[in-house]
Each structure stands twice: as structure tokens, then as C-alpha cells.
Write a structure and sequence with these properties.
Blueprint lengths: L2 H12 L7 H21 L7 H13 L10 E4 L7 H7 L5 E5 L2 H14 L4 E5 L11 E7 L4 H8 L3 E11 L4 H5 L4 E9 L8 E8 L1
Parallel strand pairs: 1-2, 1-4, 2-3, 4-5
Antiparallel strand pairs: 5-7, 6-7
Helix pairs in contact: 1-3, 2-3, 2-4, 2-5
Amino acid sequence: MKPEDGLRVGLDALGLAPTLSGEQADRLLAYLDLLNKWNKTYNLTAIREPERMLTHHLLDSLAVLPFVGRDALLDVGSGAGLPGIPLAISRPDLSITLLDVVGKKCAFMQQACIQLGLANTRVVNERVELWRPEARFGQIISRAYGELDDLVRQTGHLLARGGRWLAMKGNLPQTELDHLRGARLVEAIRLRVPDLEAERHLIILEAA
């Protein structure tokens, strides 16, 4: 299946097709193409096949879109821009910051934002524990960041009062939730990603 066909089918399955324009779909495909090209040199992701990148990265990122609010969003440990760049393409009204400590990954994200014309997005190359921005974030999202306790402990200084963490996980991390300190569970949502035969959950937390 061609990438454009796979994306269309995936967006339909996620219920997002009516909310995204043709231009936004084209940008999502352009991002996928950039990721594939840069990955050959910079090893941004272990997934090499474009069709698997579509499912495991692009659609996986977009599955959380209905649960993202309006407040400024920090994508911590963004890596190759996941989920931040797909979210930025889909939500041009949303201010998004992509944070990562690895320089080559930030270089890719910066170039992708320029080529895709993402005026709502900025890239920061810093260690999360040391970064002190002028304003805190109403939403902090992570994808494969580590354990929930680490996420809360290392990013708590970046979360605005009343803000929420959106942690993307595979299986429901019950043990991590049982040992969580400094935050409480708001909701655990099972996500269904088209053509992805693995469990996915979104864990929403707020400060305790």
C-alpha cells in the first residue's frame, strides 16, 4: 500500500480524517519522508521501513490527538519529533516545544520544522533536569520516556499549576502507577492504533 493510501486508511480508522485537511495530510507524509531520509544517515529510529514508520510512529502519535488540550505543550525526550511534530501539523493552533538532549535529533527536528513550515513549534537542545524556561507548560507529553516516576520527578519543575502529564505507554504500567510519587492518576486510556498489534495506553497524570 502506498504511504498516502496507508495514511488515509489510518486516519479513517482513528476517526481523524474529517478534522485534517489535505494540506495537513501532505505535511504528515512529508514528515514521514524526511524521517526516512535522515534516518539512513543519523539513525534516528530503529524502524527502517517507511510502512512501519507510518504505523509505529505517525499513527501511534496521532492516536493521542483527541486527548491533547489547548495549553502549551512540551514534548519531552522528543527524539525524532514524536509525537510532537505530527501533533504540531495536526494542531496549528497549539504551541509546542520539542525538547531533547541529543544534538543530531534536535538538528533533524529543527530542519523538519523549517521545511514543514511549523511556525507553532520550537526545538530546545537541553537536559530536561537543567532546563529552566521562562514559562511552564500546561501539558507535558512523553513517548517511551522511561518510568512514570522518572517522568514526574525530572519534569515536575516544568509543569504549570493545574497542568497534566500525558505519558504514552505500551502495556498498562500498573506497577509504575502503584509506586508513583508526586502525581496521581487522572485516567488510563487504551489506544487503538490501526495495524499495530501491540497494546498502547495513554496515562494522564496530575500533580499530587
